[in-house]
Design a protein that fits this description.
Elements lengths: L13 H4 L31 H15 L1 H14 L10 H9 L3 H18 L12 H4 L7 H14 L7 H15 L10 E4 L14 E7 L3 E5 L4 E5 L3 E3 L4 H17 L6 H10 L9 H18 L1
Antiparallel strand pairs: 1-2, 1-5, 2-3, 3-4
Organism: Nostoc punctiforme FACHB-252
Protein name: Site-specific DNA-cytosine methylase
Length: 300
């Protein structure tokens, strides 16, 4: 029995079966791969004056997003608007925005810098668009911030400079203005915060020099040890005996201080850490002795 042959189907395209399709832009005699297709141009209307204004307004909002965030965070912190749900500003930022302490204060400090730059008429048209561009400026004096930003804009060819350009200009100024270190170990100084956010909360505190570096000192305060540039220190010019007295007071405060103490007691100990004299009054001495006796009774 002969098996019937299968008929092979021949595929044909619509173009070959209908060589003259209506509205066809491709000739049947052309190779489809090299065919030319006519595409009609679409006219893009120009922005109206109102649209141009809206675009500029929205662009400015995007550019100022970090600035607005910093301003808002500062107000939330200063007015303690977090107090109904959180005991500290840091906990609130972590839960509400996912910001750790460092990020929250980076935005706050950046907003302070931008506010300062706004006051300089020469640079009002070219302002930072990202927090990283102003981060190197937060450690500078107010006038220096404006000068550095102007120099960075010039270095960037009249455009908004990158954070790297700003950092390079800041480093040049630091190298040019470094002050030699004449402090000695054991010397008692006052901390001058100026515009350094890393010294936040230490304004006016006395500090005992424990290590002398080229352009900074490692100092001990009543509750911590930190490294401070010499421009942020001012010597009290105490006599050696007075420096020794301050060291003894520092040891006593550090021994009894704890974050678990009542807030009023904490504030008292913190006030001792900002004394502008090398001794305690009779009342201060009496209160400190009471706290020391309480501490001794707790550990025995």
């Amino acid at each position: 029995m002969n098996t019937p042959r299968h008929k092979r189907k021949q595929a044909t395209s619509a173009a070959s079966s209908n060589p003259k399709l209506p509205n066809s832009d491709i000739s049947s005699s052309e190779n489809p791969a090299s065919a030319i297709i006519d595409v009609s141009a679409v006219e893009v209307p120009e922005l109206t004056e109102q649209e141009q204004s809206d675009r500029l307004h929205l662009e400015r909002k995007v550019e100022r997003a970090f600035f607005e965030a910093g301003k808002a965070l500062a107000e939330l912190r200063d007015r303690r608007l977090y107090r109904s749900t959180h005991s500290t500003f840091e906990e609130y930022c972590k839960d509400r925005f996912g910001y750790n302490r460092s990020r929250s204060y980076q935005l706050i400090d950046a907003a302070v810098v931008v506010d300062n730059l706004h006051k300089c008429p020469q640079i009002v048209d070219i302002l930072p668009t990202a927090e990283g561009q102003v981060r190197p400026l937060t450690k500078l004096e107010t006038q220096q911030q404006q000068e550095v930003w102007q120099a960075a804009v010039e270095k960037a060819g009249g455009k908004v400079p990158t954070g790297r350009i700003v950092k390079d200009v800041v480093q040049q100024i630091i190298e040019r203005t470094k002050v030699p270190n004449t402090y000695q170990i054991g010397e008692v100084c006052q901390i001058l915060v100026k515009d350094n956010p890393e010294l936040r909360g230490k304004s006016g505190c006395w500090a005992i020099v424990t290590q002398v570096n080229d352009f900074s000192c490692t100092v001990r305060t009543w509750d911590s040890e930190l490294t401070v540039a010499v421009q942020h220190l001012k010597s009290y010019d105490y006599l050696p005996a007075e420096c020794q007295q301050v060291q003894q007071i520092c040891d006593r405060i550090s021994r009894v201080y704890s974050s678990e103490l009542e807030e009023s007691v904490q504030r008292f100990l913190e006030s001792l850490g900002k004394l502008k004299r090398a001794y305690l009054t009779q009342l201060e001495e009496k209160v400190l002795r009471v706290l020391e006796s309480e501490y001794d009774s707790e550990i025995t």
